[in-house]
Write a structure and sequence with these properties.
With 497 residues, this protein is an alpha/beta fold. The chain has 17 helices and 19 strands. Strand 16, helix 15 and strand 17 form a beta-alpha-beta unit. The longest helix has 25 residues. The termini are far apart. The mean pLDDT is 94. Bound molecules: 2-aminohexanedioic acid. 2-aminohexanedioic acid binds next to loops. Oxidizes proline to glutamate for use as a carbon and nitrogen source. This is Bifunctional protein PutA.
Length: 497
């Protein structure tokens, strides 16, 4: 079956699913008055109302935490094998609900169809991977207790599910706080998780704004926080947790300022395809996305001409169409921030190349993909989260200085190398600071269980998601059970000497 055929089938079912209206109330154990209910609008077309999302008030958080604490013991007593079975049932339910979940990813988060498929697949992979991990590594481990899982809008199902599934797999009770922009898909996912057998108090959905996340991380009964989002918010959470003396766990996965180094031996066509995919897929809204392309001087003219030509072929538009490459950015605030950066760079950069938006881009949050040539890396001061690529040129003798400049940004997440010289690849891999270094390929789309994903420095705490150490951080070695020596034991002891 061709991908296109499968997509066509799915699209028919998605259209069917789109006829319903979606309402997301908080799924908490407490009777919480909704603080506000608002219409969720499609970022590719504001006239399309996807559903209604209700937010919890921050002052309801302590009661939800109390409810979570009451079930810690019961959930910890469920064996890792039973927890794994529940996670596998969630994976099956997500697969069965593929059209609805994809439809929500497209209409609520602006994901393209291809990205929406990948989104659901990754969520399924996380459930199955952590189920296997629970069985193989959690037998002699104890959960840490109650965990807050705070997740971003850019992977509204995959990362949301990855955080929740990991915490549950390790035996923890979970309070999930999804990004406010993508409440509907999180709500749908939690309903499926409850149907699959996760008890209601073991997993509560605290949909809300930033104040709900803040209240969660300030509640001293929370034993751990899993956070994916901005470096700044991770810093706030870290400061909340570090005031305590009982060492709550923090797993943070934050920003990136990812670079790709392309030397004069690289295959131009491959570079071109990988740059376009890494910089502009998902409208550049991935922390793994390519932000800085570093091209060796000798081949820069040729490479950049090819890349600009290929940019002109990108189709920006309605993400629900098969042939769309780049959808909208998440909301008007993100769009304004990006447009402000782009205006500033147009004045400051050496040169730029920006493609045109389609005629019907009104009433939506599209940002036209753009490439800026900079004199050097210092001109890029902060992480930019959108379809904006920066380019610098370097001379062969300047490679180490370039790596130093990249490392000085302190974002050690995903970098890439395009070179056919093994020695160059090995040298860069040794010196560059990163969670993942991708060689002669694109730098996005880490596969759960195959390419564990995460970074260090300003990019996060580790351990990598979808990797073998993640559940260890969310659990501890079970207490060592030391049997008292019996009289016979003592006798046996003596007999030994
Ligand atoms: C993120 O964008 O927050 O490898 C992280 C990838 C994804 C990145 C997710 N796993 O592209």
């Amino acid at each position: 079956l061709s991908n296109e055929f499968v997509l066509q089938q799915l699209q028919a079912e998605m259209n069917e699913a789109a006829r319903q209206s979606y309402a997301a109330a908080p799924l908490t154990a407490v009777e919480a008055d909704a603080a506000a209910a608002h219409e969720v609008r499609n970022p590719a077309d504001f006239s399309d109302i996807v559903g209604t999302a209700a937010f919890i008030k921050a002052d309801a958080v302590p009661e939800a935490v109390s409810a979570a604490k009451t079930v810690e013991g019961a959930w910890a007593a469920v064996t890792p094998f039973e927890r794994a079975e529940i996670l596998r049932r969630i994976a099956d339910k997500f697969e069965a609900a593929m059209p609805v979940l994809m439809m929500l990813a497209v209409r609520e988060a602006g994901k393209t169809l291809q990205n929406a498929i990948a989104e659901v697949r990754e969520a399924v992979d996380f459930c199955r991977y952590y189920a296997d991990e629970a069985e193989t590594t959690c037998a002699d481990r104890a959960p840490i207790g109650t965990v807050a899982a705070i997740s971003p809008w850019n992977f509204p199902l995959a990362i949301f599910t990855g955080e929740v599934a990991a915490a549950l797999a390790a035996g923890n009770v979970v309070l999930a706080k999804p990004a406010e922009q993508t409440t509907l898909i999180a709500h749908y996912a939690v309903q499926l998780m409850h149907e699959a057998g996760v008890p209601k108090n073991v997993l509560q959905l605290l949909s809300g704004a930033g104040d709900v996340g803040a209240a969660l991380t300030q509640d001293t009964r929370i034993n751990g926080v899993i956070f994916t989002g901005s470096t700044e918010v991770a810093g706030l959470i870290n400061r909340n947790l570090s005031r305590r003396n009982d060492h709550p766990v923090l797993i943070a996965e934050t920003g990136g300022m990812n670079a790709m180094i392309v030397d004069s031996t690289a295959l131009a066509e491959q570079v071109c395809a990988d740059v376009l995919n890494s910089a502009f897929d998902s409208a550049g809204q991935r922390c793994s996305a390519l932000r800085v392309l570093c091209v060796q001087e000798d081949v820069a003219e040729h490479m950049l001409a090819m890349i600009k030509g290929a940019m002109n072929e990108l189709r920006v538009g309605n993400p629900a169409q098969f042939n769309t490459d780049v959808g909208p950015v998440i909301d008007a605030e993100a769009q304004q921030n990006l447009l402000a950066h782009i205006e500033k760079m147009k004045a400051a950069a050496q040169s730029f190349h920006q493609i045109a938006l389609p005629q019907d881009a009104e009433n939506a949050t599209f940002v036209a993909p753009v490439l800026f040539e900079l004199n050097n890396l210092n001109e890029l001061q902060r992480e930019v989260f959108g379809p904006v690529l920066h380019v610098v040129r370097y001379r062969a003798g300047e490679l180490d200085a370039l790596i130093d400049q990249i490392n000085a940004k302190q974002f050690a997440l995903t970098h890439g190398i395009h070179s056919r010289i093994d020695g160059t690849v090995a040298h860069i891999c040794r010196r560059i600071e990163a969670g993942n270094v991708y060689v002669n390929r694109n730098i996005v789309g880490a596969v759960v269980g195959v390419q564990p994903f995460g970074g260090h420095g300003l990019s996060g705490t580790g351990p990598k998601a979808g990797g073998p150490f993640y559940l260890q951080r969310l659990s501890r070695a079970a207490a060592w059970q030391m049997p008292a020596l019996t009289r016979n034991g003592e006798a046996d002891e003596q007999a030994l000497h």
